[in-house]
Amino acid sequence: MKSDAYYSIFTFHVMNNIAHFLPSLDSVQAQCYPEFQGISMDTPTLNKRFHLRQLSSQDKLAMLRQDVKLGLIERPRSLPPKYFYDEIGSKLFDSICKTHDYYPTRTELALLQKHANEIVALVNSNTCVELGAGTSAKSEVLLSEISAHFNKSKFNYISIDVCEEVLVETAARLQNNFENLFIQSIVGEYVPSIQVLPNFDDPVLFMFIGSSIGNFTEQESIDLLSNVAKKMTFDDHFLIGMDRVKDKNVLEQAYDDREGVTAKFNLNVLTVLNKDLGANFNLDNFSHEAVYNEDEQQIEMYLISNSDQQVHIVDLNETLHFERGEKILTEISRKYSKASIHRLLGKSGLVEVKHYEPDNKYFSIVLAKRKKE
């Protein structure tokens, strides 16, 4: 389920709330990341161990307008899942991860806890780059192991996400837990953020955990993983979390939990449109649905119109006419077999090094390297 977080504004109250965690504001970028010299920071740094960069070329509101025009105006209607993750959506997703029915988070976390020591020893890297970092809750398992592996000497964490507020709050927590951790956070979408990364002298561990790769179509997945592979040296590693094909009832219940948290999460995307584009969606007029498409091997999440209705979007000067039962596709979450994982990695210029899975084979954590031609 998570893939990107998109609409959060970096506010001064966040700075004030976390100030007691972080020592000073008088940082010098080159002290922490010599590799990032020459790359400008759009947001003032919080201390000598943390830097935040926002990719200034991205106009978030313009992208939202464009995505709504392309996906929502005409039938069949759809919205990209990145718009789930405003501040409310991000918190709702954290709540989803704690529900009984949503197995991916606890399954992946258990795998990381079991195999972190082996993974860290194998990659022997003191620099991690994580795509879709979010709150870094599972990544912290690996960061703790890296800190111990390098005897608490300096190590680096580069977190990439589209939710600035979450990146800042997470940096505060992590640096409070690891005095030897230096963090570079990039606010932006995946491919542009990967492209601005410097070339590192030492081996790097790239990470894309949380089964977020499943939110992309096959071609989009290949494009994304290929961009990472091109950035990697042959000494680097790439750790990827991937949800597996399993019983349809288990999958559908995971995305339509009994507590109703996923339904609130799905409906919240309409709140984002109301807030940012002046739309007048009535959330009571829509219902959440999650179905497993066995042919495509993917969960599909929809918002279903409960009646014939009209919705006006002021910012676009558009009025949408919904019929009762009409659907808006808000997310796909693709599921993998070992064979499809192998094919995806091969098409992306990667080769599997290690494959970790639980006894029930519900989930895979794959450690890959750049494929040699």
- What's the CATH H-level superfamily name of the largest domain? Vaccinia Virus protein VP39
Structural class by secondary-structure content: alpha/beta
What is the C-level CATH assignment of the largest domain? Alpha Beta
User: How many strands appear in the DSSP assignment?
Assistant: 15
Mean pLDDT: 87
The CATH topology of the largest domain comes to Rossmann fold
Radius of gyration: 21 Å
Largest sheet: 9 strands, mixed
The low-confidence runs, each spanning 5 or more residues with pLDDT under 50, are: 2-45
What is the annotated CATH architecture of the largest domain? 3-Layer(aba) Sandwich
Main β-sheet, spatial strand arrangement: 1-2-6-5-4-7-8-15-14
Written as H for each helix and E for each strand, in order along the chain, the element string is HHEEHEHHEHEHEHEHEHHEEEEEHEE
Structure description:
This protein has 373 residues and is an alpha/beta fold. The protein folds into 2 domains: 108 residues, no CATH class; 173 residues, Rossmann fold, CATH 3.40.50. The chain is built from 12 helices and 15 strands. It has a 9-stranded mixed β-sheet with strand order 1-2-6-5-4-7-8-15-14, sandwiched between helices. Strands 3-13-10-9 form a 4-stranded mixed β-sheet. It has a two-stranded antiparallel sheet with strand order 11-12. Helix 9 links the parallel strand 7 and strand 8. Helix 4 packs antiparallel against helix 11 and helix 5 runs parallel beside helix 6.
